[in-house]
Amino acid sequence: MRTTVTLDADVDARLRALARERGVPLRTVINDALRAGVQAAGRAPATPYRLPSRRLGARPGLNLDKALSIAGQVDDDEIARKLDLRK
Hints:
Layout: H1 9-22, H2 26-42, H3 67-85
Helix pairs in contact: 1-2
């Protein structure tokens, strides 16, 4: 069946590039893309990925209201640990 469709320039360029890469006519690439789009539209939406969270707890003596001081303390602890390993 013949029909006229107006494509955006970026879509046209991508479809033509795919046709060249695959070595098939443009109409084959367009039909494949339309089939994939129609099939995807008929599917139920995928459930979103949920990342479970865990309580990490707080180290004794650290004030969680001051994030920069925590980062500094962690850095200082790591430097001290590395210096102890050199002995």
